[in-house]
Amino acid sequence: MGEINIKQLACELNLSAATVSRALRDSHEISSETKARVLEMAKKLNYEPNPFASNLRGQKSKTIAVIVPEIANNFFSLAINGIEEVARERDYHVLIYQTHESSAIETSFLNRLLSGRVDGVLISLACENVDKEHFKKISNQLPVVFFDRVHDDIDGVKITTDDYESAYNAVQHLIENGCKKIGYLSALNALSTGKKRLQGYLDALKDNDFPDDGNLIMKSGANNDENYTLIKNFIAEHKPDGILSSIEELAMPCYYACKELNLNIPVDLKLISFSNLAHAQLLNPSLTTINQPAFEIGVEAAGILFKIFNKRWYEPNQTIILKSNLIKRESTRAIA
Amino acid sequence: MGEINIKQLACELNLSAATVSRALRDSHEISSETKARVLEMAKKLNYEPNPFASNLRGQKSKTIAVIVPEIANNFFSLAINGIEEVARERDYHVLIYQTHESSAIETSFLNRLLSGRVDGVLISLACENVDKEHFKKISNQLPVVFFDRVHDDIDGVKITTDDYESAYNAVQHLIENGCKKIGYLSALNALSTGKKRLQGYLDALKDNDFPDDGNLIMKSGANNDENYTLIKNFIAEHKPDGILSSIEELAMPCYYACKELNLNIPVDLKLISFSNLAHAQLLNPSLTTINQPAFEIGVEAAGILFKIFNKRWYEPNQTIILKSNLIKRESTRAIA
DNA sequence: TTTATTTACGTAAACGTTTACGGAATAATA
DNA sequence: TATTATTCCGTAAACGTTTACGTAAATAAA
What we know:
The structure is a homodimer of 336-residue chains.
Chain A: H1 6-13, H2 17-24, H3 32-44, H4 51-58, E1 63-68, H5 74-89, E2 93-98, H6 103-113, E3 120-123, H7 132-141, E4 144-147, E5 157-161, H8 163-176, E6 182-186, H9 192-207, E7 217-219, H10 224-238, E8 242-245, H11 248-261, E9 270-274, E10 288-291, H12 294-309, E11 319-322, E12 325-327
Parallel strand pairs in A: 1-2, 1-3, 3-4, 4-5, 5-11, 6-7, 6-8, 8-9, 9-10
Antiparallel strand pairs in A: 10-12
Helix pairs in contact in A: 1-2, 1-3, 5-12, 8-9, 10-11
Chain A binds a DNA duplex (30 and 30 nucleotides) through helix 2 and helix 4.
């Protein structure tokens, strides 16, 4: 309807479309008076250049894609928040896609994005096994920055947190506060993110001369209901006095399971989890968390993507590691 | 790089670009053998049509925009989740923008979207006062569906929840459980969403012959820190024995304030809040919430937008109201 | 004065699709 | 056989920009 284009604008001004285009882009080939006239008329008629025409001509989309497992997740929504803010500063647009942890969907999204719809992609991998070869093809055609959920076997720029150290320190904290039998709720096993957390757990146990008991590692299931059952049985059977949960989604069920099993946190069981829950402080008991700088990860990842766009990034395989924050609360309090 | 276009594909097949295009869109003008050949070669060469060229030609973007105040918010992230799923089913792309409650930013986003970048917009309004005239211009040029944060003075299709009834019932619940002096933490005052919640509160008080005391209505401040101070002072000064919070962001500080003031929830103060916190159950004490069907709102809103696209929507000003769910928990327990 | 340079703008091509139009070959009908 | 309809495909224009190229006028340099 209102859709006014550059030709009509030019006509209104008795100029050619080329002149108008150049004036709007502040070209030195246009006199300042003409520029002023054009700007004024453009404002008056509410002219907005058609992005598809621009993009088609210029092969730039001014758009980036963000691919995450889930949007409704404390970590990812914060990361997207950071990404959006950076994009906005640069007048870029942000497309979002969620994979629901399916690498098939992930691959399908990536393929669709190869058409030039976006200038670059920020991705946090689905936890399923990935087709690494496919990723190589992708990143040859499109700048990609990985964040948080990364894979060692896939080359690329990566922003992560200090997963190994965080897990290690978490276990150390449990031990210092009296735990003798520490369980691990594992997830993201196919990704280096998950592997590092697990390794941190294992090494901390070893360094403290804890026995190497594979039974204390629980693998997460397919959905929340299954996870709850798994966790309840895990606790009931193995009776750990401390648990490190590799993701928030596995820590919450521990509360319910402990209530069901009549176990007191932290007396009978101390709990610590990777989590970006805003109000871990208000849980009963308050939850000791490994808090990842989610917003900053988003900002950093987006920032690097823009550096790549501007040819100001020279480390195609660099991994940037931000520090997580261990926040000690009631759920791991030492019992006198 | 790899970017293959329809001409190269056509060349490879000894066909014209037109034939290839038609074959890919399954036109009846193309023989089935040719179609098969084209499809095969397209798959083989990983051909993806350039969306900008298609959009430019067809004046369709296959993209929708979602404008929300904040992404990192339990309600909005769930709504976006719903929207994304519906969009995905239809092979649509989703752009997200956050206004951080600024109507200036909101207006600026909307203006940029008028260029044809998207086929439609889903918006949840910023809580600042809005330029209603501007919205009229917008919705003449672009299909817009409002969700949750809506404004009575702005025409359009709207998806909301039963804000009035929810607030009314919440207050009724507080009264039934013994509250004599019920405060209201107000927000979104410029929007009908906020006005209806407030009115529900007021009418419930009136219907129960409670005195009309404006002092018991607290207006939210500019940020979390200010809100905390406001709330603490509010509780300390007016000593309500019940509080209805119109948004989750005002309920959480109540916990901290009560701890600070040595007040026990629910003994000294009962608390209920509009909230989509996943684990309200685990708070200390567990929080009674008015749970909005956030995901469903997203699904519904997106569904209607697609109906509008397909000319299957005939009610330009209909408001669809979904029901919220009052979940009673410890924070409003009656004290014997 | 002649020639070179700069300024300021217009013309037209290009980006990669889709589609109106047309046409040749084949099949159907008279 | 002559006419009409159908099938299948190609040509070219169009979508709205941006930009290489050209050019006329004005200015500077020779």
